[in-house]
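hey
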């Protein structure tokens, strides 16, 4: 058994073009290996996430100072817009319902109702795919 486990401050680059920074270590859950990252949050707390090694594109060891600064720039969002869209469809909500979250923010701000329309400035797979279909005349702009 290898006793030299990885435990460093680092920047993780994940498939899906996500970048997170914090204290990275190895973890075993249910007999499987995972990469654990403890990310310092703006409010002083720590957010912990676990990733399968196959989801990690790159690990860049760095200093604690740099990792903490990077972490503040790349704060994880608790729920993505895609998940809000599913929630809205499953529960009959729409952006016009203007449901506010407990912190007073509009939960549907930025959610696009039209599945075929790319979001301006977004370069994710779905938006690029929609742009390609528009350019090829497969869907109307």
């Amino acid at each position: 058994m290898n006793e030299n486990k990885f435990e460093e401050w680092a920047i993780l680059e994940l498939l899906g073009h996500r970048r997170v920074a914090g204290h990275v270590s190895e973890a075993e859950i249910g007999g499987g290996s995972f990469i654990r990252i403890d990310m310092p949050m703006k409010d002083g707390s720590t957010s912990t996430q676990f990733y399968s090694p196959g989801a990690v594109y790159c690990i860049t060891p760095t200093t604690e100072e740099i990792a903490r600064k990077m972490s503040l720039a790349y704060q994880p969002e608790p729920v993505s817009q895609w998940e809000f869209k599913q929630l809205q469809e499953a529960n009959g909500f729409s952006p016009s319902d203007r449901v506010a979250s407990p912190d007073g923010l509009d939960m549907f701000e930025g959610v696009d109702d039209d599945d075929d329309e790319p979001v301006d400035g977004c370069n994710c797979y779905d938006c690029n795919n929609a742009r390609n279909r528009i350019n090829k005349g497969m869907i109307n702009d």
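The radius of gyration is 19 Å. Strands lie at 7-14, 18-29, 32-40, 46-51, 56-61.
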